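Instructor's aside before we start: the two examples that follow are unrelated to each other. I chose them only because their records fit on one page, so don't look for a connection. First example below.
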Amino acid sequence: MAKKVLIVDDDQEMLRILKKDLSKYSRTFTVLTAEDGLSAVEMLKKNNISLIITDLEIPQMDGLALLSHIRERYPEIPAIVITDSSTPEEQKLAKEKGATGYVEKPFIIEDLARKIITSLKKEGDGGILHGIAPGTFLQLVEMEEKTCTIRLTDDKSGNQGVLFFKEGELLEARINELKGRDAAYQILAWEEATLSIQESCALTENKVQADLQALLLEAMRLKDEIREQTEQEGVIEAEEPEIKVEPERKITLTTDGEVAKDNEPEIVLELEDEKPAPEATTEIKKPSPTITPGTKKSTPTETKPRVKPRTAQVPGSEDAGIVYSIGDNIFSAVSDLKASILGSSFIKLIFKALVLFVILVFLGFSYFYITLESDRDLIKQIGQTKAHIRSQQEARFQIEEEIQRLYTEKEQSFKNNESKVAFMELDLKIADLEEKQEKIETETKSWKKDLEACQVKLETMKRKTFLERITERIKDYMSQKAA
C-alpha cells in the first residue's frame, strides 16, 4: 500500500504543481496537501501520515509550531522543511524542532522525490512483517533490547498504532488520540497485525511506566472480559420470550344481524348472502333476489342518488340490459375512421412520398447552402489577390533596378573600350529582363481585373438578402446543368 506524504504550504499553485508532478510516484507514495497549519493538524488526525513536508511561513500556525506539534504528538513522523530563504539559525532551530531535512526554493521536483523516497525507506529499514501476533514479537524486542519505532496495522479492524522502544523498554504507545497504557492494551490485544520497523526512536521519556509482561497479561485479561461479556449479551439476545396465542373465535352473523349460537375458536366473520360488487364499466340488469324459507328479508339500505352520464340505448341491446355512453360511441367512431385512413395503401404511399420530398428538399437546400459563396470567402480572395499584386510589383521594381544597373555597366564598358562580346552579353541580359518585365505587367493587369471583379461582387452580395443569394445560386446551378 502506498504511503501518505503531507505537504503544507500557503502557495496553492505550488501545491497543485507538486501534487501533479509527484503523482507519477503513486506506487510508492501518495500526496496530501494543506494550506495552513491547522488544516495540517486535522489531516494528521484523520490520516496515517508517513512523512510531512512544510514551509516555515504558513498561516494560522507557522512551520516551527507545526514541527513542535508533530514532535509532541507524532514523534515517529519525519519532517522536511522547505522555504524561500534560510539562515543557519533557522536551520538549527528547525532541526531542534524535529526536522530531518531542509530544502530551499526553488528546487527540482526529482530531487524532492528522491528525498521523500529516502525518508520513507527509513520508516521500514528494520523490515516489514505481515500476520504477526504483536505480543509475541514485542517480547523478542524486549529480550534483544532493541531501540526502534514500530508501526502496527490490525489485520482485522484496520486500526493503526505506534510503539516506541528504547533498549527493549516500551516508552510510549499511541492509537490516534489515545496514548500510554490504554493504547498499549489495545495494540497488545490484537491477534494479527502488519508491523513496519524503524531502527530509531525519537522519544527518551518513559510515559507508559509499566513492564511489558504486565501489560500483556492485563491486555489478555481485558480481552477475555470483553469476549465473555459479548457472549453473555449474545445469549440474552438469543432468548426470546414465549408468545402465547389465544384461541381465535369464529363468529357467524345472519342476515338480520344476530349472532349464531355455535361459536367456534376462530376470529372469522362470515356474512351470509354476500353479493359481489357490480362492475364499473357496464350496468347489467340483475334479477330480483329470492328469499329462502327460514330467513328474514333484509331491508335495503338507503343510498344517495348517483348522477349518471347521458347514455344511449343501442338498438337490439334491450334484452341484454347493456347501456353505452355517447362519448364511447364518438370515440369508437373516431378510432374506426383513423384506422381506415391509416390502413389505406394510397394514404401510406402519399405519406411516404411526402417524407421523401421533404428529405430531398432538405438535402438540396443543404447542398446549395454549403456551396454558397460567402462574404468571408470573397474577402479572403481579395486579400490574396492584393498580396499577389504586391509581390508582382516588387518583382517588377527589382527587374527595373537590374535593368538600370546593366545599362550603367554597358556605358562603363563603352567608356573602357571593351570588346563587342561584352556589349552583346549585356544587351541579351537587358532583353531578357525587359521581357520578364512585360510579362509581369501583363499578369498584374489580369490580377487587378480579378480584384475589381471580386470587389464589385462583394458589394453586390452585401446588397442582396440571403434568400436572393440562394435563389441566384440555384439559377446558376440549373443554367450550368442546361449548358
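Example two begins here.
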Amino acid sequence: MTRVPRAEVIVVGGGPAGSTMAWRLARQGVSVLVLDRARFPREKVCGDYVEPRGLRILEAMGSLGRLEQAEPLPITHSATYVDSLCAYRGPIPFYGRIEGLAPHGYIVPRDTLDDEMLAAAARAGAIVHQDTSVSGVRVGPRGVEIEAGRGAETVRYRASLVVGADGGNSVIARSRGLTVDDPRHVAVAQRAYATVAGELDLGEAAFFFDETLFPGYGWLFPMAGGRVNIGVGILAETRARLRVRVPDLFAAFVDRLRRVHPQCKRLELCAPPIGGIVKTYGGHGRNHFDRGVMIGDAGSFVDPMTGEGITPAMESALLAAPVLEAALREGRFDEARLVEYERAFRAYFDPSMVFLDLCAAMLRNRHLARPWLRALKRGCQLAEADEGFARGAAGYFGGLDIRPFGILGEMWVQVVRDLALVWPRLALDHTAGTSLRDLIDWQTALTRSALRDPLWHMRWAADVQLKWLALLAAAPARRPDPRAVGLL
C-alpha cells in the first residue's frame, strides 16, 4: 500500500465538471488532486456540443483560444425534422442576443475538450493522477481517505474534502448511499462519428423527432473536415416499458439520415457507435454529505429536455467551489455547512431547469406522441414565419435565457388565436380545422393512455401536477435567467 501526500481537496473525475472545479480551487490557492481512471485523451459518449454559456467558461479558463486553433465549425443554424420532413431551418433564434455570449456554439469532440480542460486545471496548479481507479471511500472525523488502484499498486489518498465528479455511475455517490437511478430521469444514448460527402457548408445542428424515438430525439452535429457527430437518445423508462433496443434505434436512424438529409446520402461511420447514460436535473437526490459534494453528471446536472450536460457540469463546479473554499477557511466540513451548495445551485438552476423538468415529464407519456409531434410541426411553421415566436417559444429546447412564463405565454397566445380562427377557417376551408381536430386528438390520446395502463397513467399525471407546483414555487423573482448572466 503506497501513501501519497495529503491534499485539501480530492476531485474524483477529470471531465468538464472535475476539471473546472480543480481549476477554480487551484487558482484560489487550494491544494487539489484530480483522480481519473482513464488516460487522457479518451472518448466519451456525448453530442460534443458546447453552447455559448460553456464557451464563456472555457474562455475564462484559458482553453477557448487553444481549442479554436483547430478551427472548429461555428454552429449558428439549426434544422428540425419531424417524421423525416424538415419542418424548420434557419438561424438559431436566441443566439447573438445576450451581451458577453458568443453568437455560436462549437462541436468539440470530448477527447479533445476534456484533455484541454484537464490541462487547464494542471496549469492552474492542480495535481492530476490518471489511470487511477477509485475503489473505496471512507469519511471520518479526521478527513476523507480514498483507496485507488494505479497500475499494480494500491494507493491511499487523504484530504479534508472530496468532490464526486465521476459521472452517472459515480463511485462517490455509491459510497455515500446517494445513487439515484430513477428511470424517469435517465436518458440512454448511442453516438458515433461519421463522414459525409464533402464539407458541410453551414454550421447547422439538425434534430430529428418521430414516434420511434419518442420521448427522445436523434441528432446530427457538423464538424470541420466533413465529419459529423450523430446519435440518438431516449428515456430509460420508455426503453424498459416498450423493450426498445437503443442499437436498433441507432441503426434505423442512420438509415433514415441517408434517405432524408440532403448531405448524408453517402454517410459512413468512422467506428462502431458507443453508448452511455445521463441523469437529468429533477432526478437528483442530495448532492452534499459530510466532507463532500457531487457535481456534473454525478449530481444529475443535465438539461432534462436536450440531455446537454457539458455547460451545466462546469456551472455546478463553479457553484460548489466557493462553498468548499469557505469550508476550508472555517475548518468546518459537516453536511450542515455544505448544504450551502444546494441553496446555491437551486437559486441558479431552478428558475429554468424546473420548467424544463416539467416539459420532459409531460413528454414521458408515449400515447401522446402523435399530438406532440403535430404540435411541434405547427410550432416549427410558426417559428419560420415569426422570429419573435421562434426566439421566445423555442427557448425550452436549448435556450440561453429561459423565462418559463414568457414561453408559456407565447404558446397560449398562439393556441387562443388558433382556436378563435377555427370556425371562420372551417367556413372557408373544411381542411383547415386543425385546432379543433388537435383538441380531439389530445383527448383521445389521454383516454387511450388511461384505459391501457391506468396505474402508470395515474402516476404520470400526479408527477406532472407535482412538477407544475414546483414550477410555481420556483417562479423567478428576478430576470433574466441566472444562467444567462453566468458565474464568471
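Residues 183-279 form a domain with the D-Amino Acid Oxidase; Chain A, domain 2 fold (CATH 3.30.9.10).
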